[in-house]
Amino acid sequence: MRALPGANGGKISRRSGRNTGVARAVSRYHGATMNLLAIETATEACSVALVHGDTVIARSELAPRRHAERVLPMADELLAEAGLGRHALDAIAVGRGPGAFTGVRLAVSLAQGMALALELPVVAVSSLAALALEAPDDGDAGTAILAVIDARMGEIYAACYRRDDEGGLVALADECVCSADVLQLPEARAWQVVGSGWATYESVLRDRLGVSPRFADGARYPQAVHVAELAAREFRAGRALPPEQALPVYLRDKNDCAFQGEVPVERPSALRRLSSKIAVLIPALLLLQACASPSHSPQSGIRNVTDDPAGVDYGPHFSPDGRFLIFDRRALVGGGRWTTYIIPFDGGAPRPLSAGAVPVQQTRTRWSPKGDLIAFTGIGPGGAAATWLMDKDGSHLRRAPSPGQGGAFYPSWYPDGRHILETVYDDNTLRSVDIRTGAVAKIGTTPDLMIGMASVSPDGKWIAAAAQLREGRPYEQRANQIWLIGSDGHAHPLLADPHQGRAPAWSPDGSRIVFESNQGSPRPAFYATFVANVDGSGLEQLTSFDRNTQHPVFSPDAKWIAFSERTAKLFGAHAQSVAVMRDSGRGPGGCAGPVFRLLKPCAMMRRDVGGAGQSLSANNAGGNRANRRERMTAVYDRADVKAGACSYILMGLLQRLDAQSPGLIDELAKGVEGDFEAVESQGEVVPLVTAIFQEAQAILRRAGRHGQLSVKG
Length: 713
Prior knowledge:
Elements: E1 13-18, H1 20-26, E2 35-40, E3 45-52, E4 55-62, H2 67-82, E5 91-95, H3 101-118, E6 122-125, H4 127-132, E7 143-152, E8 155-163, E9 169-171, E10 176-178, E11 190-194, H5 196-209, E12 215-217, H6 224-236, H7 270-291, E13 303-304, E14 311-318, E15 324-331, E16 339-344, E17 351-352, E18 361-367, E19 373-379, E20 385-391, E21 398-399, E22 408-413, E23 419-424, E24 429-434, E25 440-443, E26 449-456, E27 462-469, E28 481-486, E29 491-493, E30 502-506, E31 512-517, E32 528-533, E33 540-541, E34 550-554, E35 560-568, E36 574-582, H8 594-604, E37 606-608, E38 615-617, H9 623-642, H10 645-660, H11 663-671, H12 673-682, H13 686-703
């Protein structure tokens, strides 16, 4: 399988198949099928690879400054594609540098965090060696490979290799960092050069080589697929490391760059060694929450479908065959008109659905069940709104034959593809419209509700609506809950406990409802995606509030949920883009990991009664146990706002402890009861985390489990 070029225009590259280098590396692996996840983020390229037997699949993207955002979703995509859970992995491989300080630290931290959570070894390999494998194998044992990365500040990271008889690498000298004009090279019959250092210092390096290289490419980057190839050999040879021994290599402080003689070894100060450990430890602990779950943790697998830095994308909806998404777009700068765009779900460039001029703004676009028509809210001059229709290719735009008075929003199709439900703006009521005859039927509710966005169930017998009781006050979207309205007009809240919610959408089988809510959000304007069963059970929060996910919808096969989420745009602005995530599809408990089993039920079943940190349990039947969980939830909520990383250390620690035995959480809660009281009165979180570490160690010692939560220094 040919190596992937490093320069790919910033797009995600996908490849899979039998990798001969990996096949050779694992051919003498004596266990079951080797499953190895590799990470490489030392340069501008962000890549992840998964070895499964003698097959490797990979993702690679040029994503400067977006590595932390992209790497975990890439890993989740690969595991999902291979049909593997995290606990099926045998080891984590990582490019340990040299390279950009932040990128190297991120990769090693992620590898350590995953390995700690999954109790796996780590195989750390040179990012320069991985880069060297980007050079083509010319079959000449006398050819040397110079791997060179632009280290900025007038320097390069460099290393020299030759290929061995099995296609691996033999280092000709140690790695180094230096100015290109003082680089000393070993003798070689011929040269190949790869890496960004060649693009920056080509003329200087040609002088150092003394000959014209057989192959040179300055647009190559270290790739995780080659990290995996090298790591598979190391793992087979028994050279994997405990996570805490897999350390980054920065090189920056080495004193020369001679490929001849001894290279001085850096001896950092004790303070610097401690600082380096802390820099790696904190991100590693952040990964415990994401990795300790035995199945699918919240937010894993989220990927952006659109990424236009100059556009605002909103309100996605799947085509009935699941192959396309339509959404509303307008310009980031200057606002402008909302227009319906279409994009292939599997990837591609979005384009306006209608080729010609569109007489109205297009919002809340919805495909018909048969896929032949599309309905949307058309907003004309002066803000007048009505339901409009167009054919599936964006042609034949026309206004639906519904009454002109009142203004109509949020069209939702009935399963017959002939009737549309719409919300009347003037009085916040519902009506159905026959798009062939224009016949209208007003839908009353008991109790009397003021209704916003509504959605018809797949069987047409129910309506899920964002609504509030009509009690003489003005309509306010943030006061909505999700209500279910039967065919006779009788309505009841989806959830027994009052829970803010809006923009409901049904699962294809009608058993669940996904919606957005800001309940529990530290910023009221920021929403998260929630899902619940139609009987009100199994409430789950699927995304975090900082992503501000809105207008979620299921895919036709119920495997995905699409929504708009907050992403970085031009000029430091943030606005919505379309994204998708895999749906757990498991009903109650769904994708919740062990700590979410502990914390989420309380978070989902409480309501604020005034003031930060004050909460009221909606279910006190659990007695002291429920109270402890309620208080732990409140502490975590406060920690999340006030202490940043400390809250995630707390989350990861709780997960680790709960993975040993769910009963240990209650024992821990009892042991740190006084510390929780101190946090509630003083707001200091760090002492609490320290107390929890100490108490957890004592519990593990009593339980005969040693070393699992040790944090040195």
